Amino acid sequence: GIDNLSQERARKKIKKSNELENIVEIMDFVENLGVKGFVVSTHPQLKHLIKYLKTESDLLEKFEFYPILPYAQSYVSKAAENGIVGGMNEILSSGSISGKLKIVMQGSIGFIKKDVRKLLETFIDIELLPLHEVKKNIVFLHDGLTDLALGLGMKDVIETFVNRIKDNYNVKPGLVTKNFPSLVGFLENCDIDIPTIMTSFNPIGYQMNPSRIECEKQILKTKVIAMNTLAAGYVKPLESFEYLSKFGLNSVVVGMSTREHAQETISAFKKFNS
Prior knowledge:
About 55% of the residues lie in helices and about 10% in strands.
């Protein structure tokens, strides 16, 4: 008879391979146009992409990575599929034996002592395991956790993240937020050195809370990497980058899935950032 499970596994493997090939093709194309940075979430598929880049291309050495963590959905889905222990084993699979033991011990101590700092440090270490061989420029805290800490006034969460990234990984920490002015004020009040902040900036104020004008007032207070620059497709690259150039914003995050879109976006960016 036909092994349907084997066929399904084969289909998934081919699909994954095709997806990786498409990503690498776009990376190669934009690298030739001068793009050297790659923003990634710590999605479970990231380790497969890095392995593919390492074995099938020379791009791994040409890009600096800007990871955003944590990817919380991975913990939920892995636990649902494999149980809590099995899920954690799969998440930890990217690291060395000694590295895994260190993380597990650290997390156990944090859990026993109900030490939020120690637990957060453990999650950071787990999330960065797949990226231990790549060049990291800035490591960002996901806006879900950043804005939760902001809303609850949890200074410890921000401090722990910033210190862990600086002290243990020797790279720059950054924060992603949907509440830029409030976060800048919070960091100032807590006397935390303001790291790089990734937040929404575009001509129509899309996801700029509480308003575009209020966000614009805070631009000079910190280094900003602009995201949602095309406002989910409502703004053309030329219009967006002309707007950003008025504020000296020359670091942007833009998703590019085709060569045509990449060419249009990068050409528009270069027009205002020569």
